Amino acid sequence: MNRNDSDGKPLKLKYPKAAWPLIVIGSFFFFLYVGVEMTFPNYLPSILSMTSDLSASVLALSITVFWGAMTLGRIIMIFIVEKVGIAKLFFLTVIGQFVTLGLFAASPHYIVSFVVIFFAGLLMGGIFSLGLLAVNEGIIGLEDRTTSLLIAMGGLGGALLPRVAGGLLDNYPVQVTLWSIFALAGVMVVLMLCLFIFRKRLVQG
C-alpha cells in the first residue's frame, strides 16, 4: 500500500468508522488479558498459601510451573497454528483459559491446583499473539498502529489489575479474588465473540 501522498509526504492513515468497534473491543480484551496474565501467576504463591499448608519452596514452584507451561504453549502454537487456523485456535485458547481459571477457583486440593496451573499456562501462552493476529486481520493496512495500541492497552491492564487483585486479597477472603479472575476470563470470552462478529462484518463490508 502506498502510504505517501503526491508530494512524497507520509499519509496519516485513519481507521474507518466501521473499524472502531473492533478497535475498542480488542483494546478492552488486551487490557483484561495482560492484566490477568500478570495477576494470576504472580499471586499464585499468596493464593496457595491461603488455601493450603505448602512450604515456601513449593509455593514458589507454582510460578515456575505456570511460566514453563506458557513457554511450552507458545512453542506448540508455532507448529499447529497453520493447521488449526488463527481464529479457531484463538477461540480454543480463550475458552480454555476460562475453563482452567474456573477449575482453579473451585479446586479442592493443591495437586489439582498444580495440574490446572500447568494447563492454564499451556493454553494462555498463545492468546496474546493470536489476539493480535485476529484483530489485525480485520484492519488491513493499519497493523503497526493497531498492534501498538493493543500492546499499550495490555500494558495498562498489566499495571492496574494486579493492584486491584492485591487489594482484594488484603481485604476479602481469597475466594473473592479467585472468582473475580474467573469472571474477567468470562468477560474475555464475550469480548472474543464480539470481536469475531465485528471482524466478520468489517471484512464482508
CATH topology, what is it called? Growth Hormone, Chain: A
Strand content: under 5%
Q: What would you call the shape?
A: globular
SSE string, helices as H and strands as E: HHHHHHHH
| CATH homologous superfamily annotation | MFS general substrate transporter like domains
Question: What percentage of residues falls in helices of 4 or more residues?
Answer: over 70%
Please report the first level of CATH classification, the CATH class. Mainly Alpha
CATH architecture: Up-down Bundle
**Number of domains in the coordinates?**
1
User: How far apart are the termini?
Assistant: 20 Å
- What are the segments in which pLDDT stays under 50 over at least 5 consecutive residues? none
Radius of gyration: 19 Å
Q: Mean pLDDT, as a whole number?
A: 90
Q: How many separate helices?
A: 8
